[in-house]
């Protein structure tokens, strides 16, 4: 069975976030070396892009069943029990991401209503925070797609873990 391509919006978003972090950091190092000063915005943007990269990468991993988990139980259970384990794994993930979605959405709404500004650049904070519930929802969708595939027996090939 061939693997599904990973060229999804989350993969592109993660790639762009990583490129942005690298460019911002490189630019800051060059400016600091040349002028003994640094860009004020680099930390604010770098943290934002790092969080975006983390959640986008988590969505890609959720879709391809590559999250860290204890596989020993899966490998030693009879086939009928596997579906129950898959459902329990999915439910645990949905609960965690549902809480993240709810509280992240409430936080973004409050930041918007209070017109909070970021400390470094004075940009509206909700611009940064809105990505938390959006990416939590993306992870939930990808986890559900992965669950459907696993229940139907369509799984990616065995992931090789390096030690």
Q: How does this model look, in words?
A:
The protein has 163 residues and is mainly alpha-helical. It has one domain. The protein is 71% helix and 0% strand. It has helices at residues 9-35, 42-63, 72-76, 79-114, 126-129, 131-151. Helix 1 (9-35) packs antiparallel against helix 2 (42-63). Its main location: membrane. GO terms for molecular function: transmembrane transporter activity. The chain crosses the membrane at residues 12-33, 45-63, 84-105, 125-144. This is TRAP transporter small permease protein. Belongs to the TRAP transporter small permease family.
Topology:
Blueprint: H1 9-35, H2 42-63, H3 72-76, H4 79-114, H5 126-129, H6 131-151
Membrane topology: Multi-pass membrane protein
Family: Belongs to the TRAP transporter small permease family.
GO biological process, one term: C4-dicarboxylate transport
């Amino acid at each position: 069975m061939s693997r599904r391509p990973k060229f999804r919006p989350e993969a592109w978003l993660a790639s762009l976030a990583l490129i942005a972090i690298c460019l911002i950091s490189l630019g800051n190092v060059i400016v600091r070396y040349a002028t003994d000063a640094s860009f004020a915005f680099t930390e604010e943007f770098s943290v934002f892009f790092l969080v975006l990269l983390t959640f986008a990468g988590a969505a890609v991993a959720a879709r391809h069943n590559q999250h860290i988990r204890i596989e020993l139980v899966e490998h030693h259970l009879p086939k009928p029990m596997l579906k129950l384990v898959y459902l329990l794994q999915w439910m645990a993930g949905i609960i965690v991401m549902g809480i993240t979605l709810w509280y992240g959405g409430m936080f973004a709404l409050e930041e918007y209503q209070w017109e909070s500004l970021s400390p470094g650049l004075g940009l509206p904070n909700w611009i940064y925070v809105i990505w938390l519930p959006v990416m939590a929802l993306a992870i939930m969708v990808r986890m559900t797609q992965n669950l459907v595939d696993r229940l139907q027996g369509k799984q990616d090939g065995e992931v090789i873990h390096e030690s």
